[in-house]
Amino acid sequence: MIHELKTWPRYFQMVLNGSKRFELRKDDRKYQPGDYLHLREYVPKDDRYTGEELVVMVNDVIRNLEVPGLSEGYCIMSLGTTVI
Question: How far is CA 75 from CA 1, 20, 26, in A?
């Protein structure tokens, strides 16, 4: 499964340069290990996409019931290698 997601510039650049290897998201898409995240850089104040994008693989998913302090309905995904 490929999930297309808006990603704010700061976080997009961190995933792109490898300094951010996780994604915290609302768990509303049934994310699973082996899925792909199609991240599209998005500037919320201008309500526009920059045209920059990349695809990363989801290695693992941790849901709110597994981690104390993680809000209900949210998950943390560990990211694998950038595909594109």
Answer: 17, 16, 6
